[in-house]
Every structure is written in C-alpha cells, then in structure tokens.
Design goal:
alpha/beta, Maf protein, Rossmann fold, 2 domains, eight-stranded mixed beta sheet, 39% helix, Nicotinate-nucleotide adenylyltransferase
C-alpha cells in the first residue's frame, strides 16, 4: 500500500502511532498556549519513547523568554521561528553525536491563543515543523497559520491537537507530495472548525515547491477563503499585513495586467490617499483574483496562474487569491482585520454588474441586503470609466444605466459618497482590454506590446506566456 493510501485510511490515533513506530525519526515537541494538545496524542497511543526526545510547554512568559528570547507578542510567526530554531539546535547538539548517523531529527512547535474565559480574544495560532528528511540532511521547514472556529475552548484544543498530528504526519510521510500534504491537514476535521490561511514550505526537501501555488491550493481546497503573497513570492498571513491598515483593492483577472489595471490603481490610490489625509498610516494595496477568475472551462490551469502572478510581481503587486465572488463577502473579510478605511476600485462595467439582482438570490434581503453588508464598514467604491469599443459610448458613474427599480438605490449610494467617480484617469488607456492583448498575442500582432508595461511585455516574450511565439 502506498503512503497516500495509508494516509487516507489512518485516523488521528493511527497517524500518531505510525509516527511513533518509525525508528528513524526522533524529535522535540514545544507548545505555548492551549496546553500540550499535540504531543498528548503521541503519548496516548503508545510507543512515544521511540519518537519524543523532549516535550516542553513554556507557558509562563518569563520562562518562554528565557528559552526563546523576548518578544512583543507570543502568538506570532517570529516567536514560532525562534522556538523551532532553538529546539532544533538543542537536539542536534545533544543527540547528534550519539545517534545522528541513524536518526532524522525534527521539532514540532506551536504558539496558540485559544478562546479565553470572556471569549474576547482572537482564536488563532502558528504551527511548524523543522526536520531533516534523512539523517545528516540540511533542515527543511513547514509553517502554517490556523484560525480556530469552534465556540468552546475545549473544542478548539481538540481541533488543534488533530491538525497538529496531521502536520507532523504529513511532514514525516507526505513531504514528497505537497498536494497531498495540503489536502491531509484537515483530515478528520472540517472547515467549520479550523481554517488554514497561510502555509509556507522551505528548505532542501521542498526546493521544488512554489509557495504561491500552495497558497492558491488552500483556497481551492476550501481550507481557507483567502491567501496572500508578496511580489517576491513570500507567503503572507492576512491579519498581520492588514491589521488596522487602510486597504485598497483592485479585483481583476489580470490576464495579463495592462496599462488600464495600473492606471486604475494609480487613480484610486491618489483619491483614496487624499481622502484619508495625513496620519492615516501606510495603505495596503492589493490585486485580488477570485478562484472563479482562475478557472478555464471549470479547471485550474496552473501555468496560466503562474503567468498572471509573475506579471503582477513584475509590477511589484501584492496578490490575494480568494473565493469571495460577491463583493460584500470580500468587504466583510477585509473588515475582519481592519476598522480603517477600505477602498475597492473597479470599472464602470463591473459596477453595472454589481447591481444585477441575480447574484443575490441566496440572500433573504436580496440586493438591498448585499449593499447593506458591502457598505457596513467604512468602505467606498472608486469607479474607472468604460469606453465601449464598438459604439464609442463613454460610461461613468454619472450616466451608468441600472434597472429602473434600483435607480433610487443607486442614486442614494452615489449621493452618500459610497460610490465615487475617478477623475484623474488617462484617456489614452480607455480603449485597452486584456482580451484584445491575448488575441493580438495569438495573432502575432506586436501592437499588443503598447497595451502593457515594458516589464510585462518583456516577461511575456521571454517566458512565452499566453502562447506567445516570436515571429520569424
């Protein structure tokens, strides 16, 4: 039976026991907060002496600082990293000389804030495994961030123990298959109990892994509703990036990113920044792609995904992948992390679609409820005009056509300042559409290069994105 077949059959107890019975692996469990929920599984199933070199719960802050150094926050990535580094070096120093030739060492660590007595805290945690794939190997590492969604502390601790066992098991037995690794993290759990909104692989065992693809898979598989990464490919944890910051988002397919996309963000940022005034803090600027916008004939094309992401990176863009097709759901997600101003920029044609009632049939209050949710927080829509390539008609906020029964609602939102026209746009870009760029690339019509930035054009040609072939 293959490793994958075994993983499918094993419950949490079976995973812990199989790890204990693997004589090649030996390691440390270090846990802060929520008790010793992960290591407890390995003690309970038997054979723990074959796996556990040490178990530690540095629960007291002074004790934790004595081992891992002082920090401002105890449930954060830097604290997890210091735990992994310290404990891994400890086990190498103490046990490497005596059993390093036959043992692949590992460290599991977590730092977690489960539900407090008053139920007022954010229930989340950082987990990681640092390990040798084989004896004497350079260490590799997997880090995840989890949000615990159960209403009771005991349930959160139980779920935390299960996902921790899944992570340890996957690190030991599924590291050769990152796809299955990610799938297995919520074995015997559900997305109603645990959300994993960040995962990062690093080190020699994962040198072929693209963390951007893994982030997208979290959303694709339903482990998270959104994932983020920086222009350099670094995986980001949303709450740490967005916390209390003003946020500006442009949603699109970015296939590819054109002058229009760049101009839309520039215009919106200028108006957004002017309205915020001094002292509002650094604006977090995001380009967001919904999972639906990544699908081609119902399937995900990973090469197409990478092409889009690489081109966004060439323009220095931070990227969010989400399954929030409805804008009100995106707004609620962003408002979870920041009570500062939120801006969303879109084209006039997208604004027209926003008033299409067929998108809100699942809401009891229909389109009225959707807009109530959308503008519940301090949110504003910034609208880029649309020039119809066939008729030459110019559409902006002032002359946008919506259904007659929604006209009063539309006027109310415009007059109330919820919807604002961008005025500082570049008219030369209004005739540019991504679909035309793709057609021209396919037809070997080099005029497409004038529709995108020099960075984007150079990368499309160099990497043969979107079927580009140089003309003879």
């Amino acid at each position: 039976m293959s490793e994958l077949e075994q993983a499918d059959l094993l419950d949490t107890r079976g995973k812990a026991l199989r790890t204990n019975l693997d004589s090649q692996r030996y390691g440390t469990f270090a846990e802060i907060g929520a008790g010793q929920e992960v290591v407890r599984w390995f003690f309970r199933v038997g054979g723990a002496a074959g796996t556990i070199a040490k178990s530690i719960s540095a629960y007291d802050m002074a004790i934790s600082d004595a081992f891992y150094g002082s920090c401002d926050r105890y449930v954060c990535r830097p604290r997890l990293q210091s735990m992994l580094d310290y404990e891994f070096q400890q086990i190498l120093d103490k046990l490497g000389p005596t059993r390093g030739d036959s043992t692949a060492f590992f460290v599991f660590a977590d730092t977690v804030s489960a539900r407090n007595f008053k139920g007022t805290n954010e229930c989340h945690g950082w987990m990681g495994v640092k390990l040798q794939a084989v004896p004497h190997d350079e260490p590799s590492q997997i880090i995840i961030h989890v949000r615990m969604l159960d209403g009771e502390n005991a349930q959160q601790q139980e779920a935390l123990g299960v996902v921790g066992v899944n992570l340890v098991y996957a690190a030991c037995f599924l590291k050769h298959d990152p796809d299955q690794f990610v799938r297995s993290l919520l074995d015997h759990l559900s997305v109603d109990r645990i959300e994993i909104d960040m995962i990062e692989f690093s080190g020699i065992a994962f040198r072929q892994v693209d963390n951007r693809v893994m982030s997208m898979k979290l959303v694709q598989l339903g482990l998270s509703n959104a994932a983020m990464f920086a222009a350099d490919g670094t995986v980001l944890q949303p709450s740490e990036v967005l916390y209390k910051k003003p946020i500006l988002v442009e949603r699109g397919s970015f296939r590819p990113m054109t002058h229009v996309n760049i101009d839309m963000l520039r215009c919106a940022r200028e108006q957004f920044s002017a309205e915020l005034g001094d002292g509002a803090g650094e604006i977090v600027q995001l380009t967001e792609i919904t999972l639906k916008n990544l699908l081609t004939d119902g399937e995900l094309d990973y090469s197409d995904f990478i092409a889009r992401i690489e081109l966004l990176a060439a323009e220095g863009m931070m990227v969010m992948i989400s399954d929030y097709f409805q804008y009100y759901r995106l707004a609620a997600y962003l408002a979870r992390f920041s009570r500062n101003r939120i801006g969303i920029t879109m084209g006039a044609s997208s604004l027209r679609e926003l008033f299409n009632e067929r998108y809100y049939t699942e809401l009891q209050g229909g389109v009225l409820e959707s807009f109530g949710r959308l503008f519940k927080s301090d949110l504003k829509l910034y609208i880029y005009p649309f020039l119809d390539p066939e008729t030459g008609d110019f559409t902006a906020v002032q002359n946008l056509e919506v259904a007659p029964n929604l006209r009063k609602l539309y006027e109310y939102l415009v007059e109330g300042g919820c919807i604002e026209q961008l005025s500082n746009f570049n008219d030369a870009y209004l005739s540019i559409f991504s679909r035309d760029v793709l057609k021209k690339i396919a037809a070997n019509d080099s005029s497409w290069e004038t529709m995108v930035s020099q960075h984007v054009a150079a990368m499309i040609k160099e990497r043969r994105f979107f079927g580009y072939h140089p003309s003879s």
